[in-house]
């Protein structure tokens, strides 16, 4: 398809145009038929300056907006009188009103040119009428005025003829419409060519001009001044840029005057002096504790532990050095301002330090509460707490360090309480209902009434899962109900062993009646918070701790161990042993339990059935309650020893008494010495103890479990007893003396199903039992009373000085 045409250059009188392939060119008049060119008007001599050839009159631009499918119009032959401008009678130059722009030179791709009879302009006194239609010239056509060469373009700009203004007017119109297509013509339609100025000049004798090789590239008319303007502007910008860069270079090494860093004046100082000034003035402040504040709470941070370090060099570098930033130069002109120092931050250390401070600065929220004071409900309103926003607080510390005169304010956020005002108000209303009146309890045929003061003491409000929950103390309410009834409850009777005919039998085990505290709390609580002030409570059965069934499962079926020791002739001592046997008899040691003889016999007092018996303490006579109970310890110890039980604690006498096995005996002293063993079998161990036939017996009923073997080393390192003379002591009691002192070791081997499970040894040293002499006569009396010495008091009556 055709190329777009210049609206001011595609009107011509006989030029050529490039036709579209789809639109054949219109017929043209052969060159031979063109009328002869009339002689040019007379003008100045040839030696004079070349005379400008008048350009053809411009024709109106037709509309080229028609569709390309429209067939091309037939070319209209140019009329010579219409294509030749009128010449001025005085100068021979064409009148300004007759000027028309030159047509472009046809492109090589244009259609063949047709020669018009109006190719040479002829002077005419009247302007030619516009052609009815004109076809646009080819877009690549070079303007005819350019083709005429310098001869047609060298007229001075101050020429006062009408020629030059017309050219300028044409150029202005051409510049404004050069890219606009000619409306009304189809694309590629053939056009008439306007004769070139050069040709017209030649025909009129105006001389020949060389073709301009740049014709059509830079526009028609006088040379453009834009390149010179652009070059000049560019040089000016380069000069300005150089001056600007030089000014920045001159101030690059100094800090702008008036500049302060965290209150330290460094304005006008060279970079190195500014660094030194910051280090000397800010350095001490950089190691001081950093005060922080969150709401009303205050605290401090150690800069070193928080990972904060002043970088004086980086601070000065940000204020000096070469840069093209105009703000820097403006600071040097107008003066600097306060700037923050550059801080190196260890984010891990800062996070830890701020997190620790946040915990101490946090304010816990206050939950709403309700309590009873003097029987009346009192509410505490809730209040928000505050928490430090740790991430934002870190940034606040970094930006505020060294530049904030007071504590650095850390950002916080509110922490709502778990119990808000609505929860508190609801609980208060419920509390008021609780004490609005008494609650009547219907239980066991009785109707005790619980007054408001009892309900208030038994009611509390507990925060639970974001709610304020009303709770009732079931134990307190149960006691209040029982206190206001008569014989409402019956205690259960625990099953236990008794000996009948020398064998154990199970007795007791009856259930009792009681109240379930949880049920009481639920029933009374429900009535207390409602208008129905009556609570129904049921009595429930209470099983004994030990039932007949549970005792039967313990395997108390046979005697697995027993031991006995002889009594002395002292009757008070024997009474104490009888009482001790009564307390031990029937004691059940369940599997894994530990038996303590002191706990079983206590309290060893007259009120518990014991008697005071005379004792001799290192030859000094005195009285003691419970004398003789160490024989109970020896007898019980040996029963547990042969049952294979674990020996937890026992202590031999300081002096050996021949009625006890050497090294395998025990004593007790309340507060310091006890006899204990643990039942380490899967069966229960029932203790049976009694005094019969001048002997004290202890038996253990259970199921056979261990096999026990025992032996001893015999007496070793014997130390003979001697006599101590206390004749001058008025309280002296003569003592005939006892056994010699010696060392002995007792061995025990315990087997379980033939496998040795315990291999033990127990070493002990006895002191010699020295005699005491008071006087010859009293010594004889003491010998008569002592008899054969079998009734000498043991360690329970005779306290050792080394115990």
From TrEMBL:
It comes from the Bacteria. Residues 14-35, 62-123, 134-152 have a biased composition (Low complexity). Residues 124-133 have a biased composition (Pro residues). Residues 1-11 have a biased composition (Acidic residues). Residues 1-163, 713-738, 770-803 are annotated as: Disordered. InterPro entries: Glycopeptide_resist_protein (IPR052913), Vancomycin_resist_VanW (IPR007391), YoaR-like_PG-bd (IPR022029). Residues 302-397, 457-530 form the YoaR-like putative peptidoglycan binding domain. This is VanW like protein. It comes from Isoptericola dokdonensis DS-3. The lineage of its organism: Bacteria, Bacillati, Actinomycetota, Actinomycetes, Micrococcales.
